[in-house]
Amino acid sequence: MQADLAVINLECPLTDKKLKPISKIGPNLKAPFRTADILQQANYGLVTLANNHIMDYGVEGLTDTLDVLTHHHIDYVGIITPEKQIPVIIHEIKEVKIAILNLCENDFSTVSDKGYYANGLHPIQNYYQLAEECKEADLKVVILHGGIENYALPSPGMKEIGRYFVDIGADVVLCHHTHCYSGYEIYKNKPIFYGLGNFSFDWENRSKEKWNYGYAVKLNYSKRKGLHVELIPYIQGSTLPGIKLLSSEERKAFDSRLENLNQLIQDDKALGKEYTLLSDSLLNTYDSFLEPYYNRYFRYLKRKKLLPSLTARKNKLRLFNLIRCESHRDLFLKALLNYTK
User: How far apart are CA 38 and CA 49, in angstroms?
Assistant: First the structure.
């Protein structure tokens, strides 16, 4: 990677040990130690660790990761440990101080395990992280792991979050997690990218077009000229594992789709309409999560409305209030925390 500082998201712990995965919903991911060799050979100087998989193999999986990264002289950010908190890292390059704040939406990785966890999305805490720890920087970059998987637009709430970080001082906001690329907007002269797509995330079903495309963002900054941004789109894991730049025809198609996404992002009404279509399509799925059975076949039948609801409407209203009200939600989450242990 030809850059003064190449940054990549490390989506899982690195370990060769046979560790027990944590209890969670969703897959538990890990990669071998030799992954760090590849990162080093590719000249990646910094990895972001705030994501929904970095704690998949508990404290030992994380500490193995930190040890192997340190051994390979690769910096990391976005993680909290009992010894040190690293939500922010500052690199000085050619007399320019670049601060990177890394965080993720709250999931199992942001639950503290003996004082180890990923830096989560908490707007008040994040304000102080950006305002205090980044105040001496010339360029402030926020890297947020969040968004709706396989959905190529930000939710209205994610758009508010992106703009919030600009309002409190970010010069660039970069989002990833959705496994497909999204568009971007320029807000108060600052770019907000709502989804970079996958970079190197192989999949058996390589025909999944959304999964296979993404783009890197190159930030060129000087105190005299300011910030210039360049997009580098690519295709990954398509017919074979690997990454390659787009052909001229593929680039035209990419640019056209990106422009369509950008227009939707700019239009709050259109963006809200797309989000409503998504939420309506998932209504039965989320409703099935409220039922007292876990078996996937029963959940499928409930989604297809072939089984009646076993949860009373009154109880669904109670759950709405527990999740909606901040004070109730904090206590409710505290109670549910016991099930992660």
Answer: 17
List Cβ<8 Å contacts ≥24 apart for 124-128.
Answer: 126/87, 126/101, 126/165, 126/168, 127/168
Radius of gyration of the chain (CA): 21
pLDDT at 210: 85
Closest CA to 8 of 113, 102, 92: 102
In terms of Cα–Cα distance, which of 153, 167, 170 is closest to 102?
170
Beta bridge partners of 224: none
Report residue 201 as tokens. 């995330």
Task: State yes or no: pLDDT of 1 exceeds 60.
Answer: no
339 burial type by CB count under 10 A (0-12 exposed, 13-18 middle, 19+ buried): exposed
CA–CA distance, 314 with 288 (Å, rounded to integer): 16
Res 28: pLDDT: 95
Q: 336 — phi, psi (to 5°)?
A: -70, -20
Sorted by sequence, the CB contacts under 8 Å of residue 122 that are 6+ apart come out as 106
Mean pLDDT (the chain) is 93
Cα dihedral angle (257, 261, 266, 270), rounded to 10 degrees?
A: 120
Residue 234, CA distances (Å) to 89, 166, 203, 217, 318 in order: 28, 27, 16, 11, 47
Residue 88 neighbours by CB distance under 10 Å? 23
Nearest to 100 by CA among 150, 157, 46: 46
Interacting residues of 254 by C-beta distance below 8 A, sequence separation 6+? 213, 215, 233, 246
Q: Are 166 and 187 in contact (CB under 8 A)?
A: yes
- Could you give the CA distance from residue 113 to residue 245 in angstroms, rounded to a whole number? 40
Smallest CA-to-CA distance from 144 within 187, 173, 108 is with 173
Which one is predicted more confidently, 184 or 308?
184
User: Coil, strand, or helix at residue 264?
Assistant: helix
Q: Is the pLDDT of residue 41 over 90?
A: yes
Q: Which ranges constitute the DSSP H helices of 220-267?
A: 248-266
